[in-house]
Amino acid sequence: MRRIAPLGLRTRLIAAFLLVAAISAGTTAALTYQQARNAILKQTQDTAVSTLRDQVEQQEIRLPLEQQELQRIVIELGKRGKPHPWIIFGEYGGIRVSTNPGTPTSTVITDSLRDRVRNNQYAAFQRVEDQRGSPWLTIGVPALFEHNGYIESTGVVFYASVPLSTEKQTVEAMVEAAQQGAVPGLAIAIVPALLAARSVLRPVRDMRRAAQKLGRGRLDTRIEVRGADELAGLARTFNETARALEQSVRELQEAEVRARRFASDVSHELRTPLAGMLAVTEVLDEDAARLDADTAKALRLVSAETGKLAVLVEDLMEISRFDARAAELNLDDVDIAEAVRKTLERRHWDDARVVTDLPHGVRARLDPRRFDVVLANLVGNALRHGGAPVHVTVSTAAGADGERLLIDVADSGPGIAPEVLPHIFDRFFKADAARTRSAGSGLGLAITLENVRLHGGTLRAGNRPAGGALFTLDMPLEAHV
Predict the structure, then answer these.
(1) What architecture is the 231-323 domain classified under in CATH?
(2) Rounded Cα gap, residues 378 and 421, in angstroms
(3) Where is the HAMP domain (predicted)?
(4) pLDDT tens digit string along 283-320?
(5) Where are the beta strands (DSSP E) in 23-149?
(6) pTM
């Protein structure tokens, strides 16, 4: 099922603003309509009731009342009706008359209205609709007389049916005017909605741009704080966070620079005395056979540890050059198969421990010394921590930026543990605590990765489905300085 894309914040703000405006306009129009309608009907109602009561009180009624006399009074009352012409009905016992001789009674005079007039002996009214749906105001007023201080009913009741068509038209005109004014009103409301959305979204856009700059490393980015509302508070919080982040990053960078300088200085200072120590241990190694067993063993241990220290110092100096971006490429046109064979021969790995698949004619422009270090570290690491035989496979593949060189180095060991794999290229990382005194410095794979990156390539570590670790080198055939 296709998901509907969420609306933007601007659209939602404008929609919310227009919705509030529409609800407000609708509520106001409804209340105004209700009040105006009630006021119009009440005015008509009060005028008609008051007029009919006054006119009935002015009539001289003599009992018993004949039908002709009742007819005369009804016609007289009908002439004086206001604010609209009335239809008057008169009832006295079984006599029924009206201003329309053919219709002595009407359906708009309900039984409930008759009961209210009879029981209360005062004027009563009711708004009803006839069979055609036309609105009418029906008023009932009894004819009363005063006797010995008491008000008595004569039994004569006059009903007035007042048409409310004019009032209905007035109310309908009000509704139509409200409907016609709603659309222009909402159209006009778009202008303040756009202005409100712009004022709200401006700081949001500023914050987004500032966050993008911050993400690109511009830690000195700040937002101009406007006003004292919640968005201004958010801008101040952003500035404080950016300031604290800038300070933390500066401190970390300074600490990293000091650490790199320390490693470089220590390595440089150790190099000279180590050269002398190595020379002395080489001489002593030659005479170790003439010494007693314990002395010879101690001498060989000193010689071995001095050699490890020398390797560590060289690795530290190499990694320091990468950190200082002082490492350089000395490119040359190299036959890859020949370069691989020479690397294996120098380290006496050209036996059954290493199996190679080296196609003829693959040439690449790279730094021979650094390529030798990369391949030696990968194969040596596979022999030490994996298992023989180690397979070295060279191939080429087409890439987006031209032909690329691919070299796979796979061992026959148990493979790399999943928890170790993310840290395999970390400096000084050793998966096995028992290897802390091994010949490796813990920098070999880190240096290998830096050399590959210097050539514009990548180095990936993983495991083969059949078992064993697999390192894949991917670099362009034409490296650029």
Answers:
(1) Orthogonal Bundle (1.10)
(2) 15
(3) 198-250
(4) 777 766 677 777 777 877 877 777 777 777 777 777 77
(5) 87-92, 95-98, 124-129, 135-147
(6) 0.49
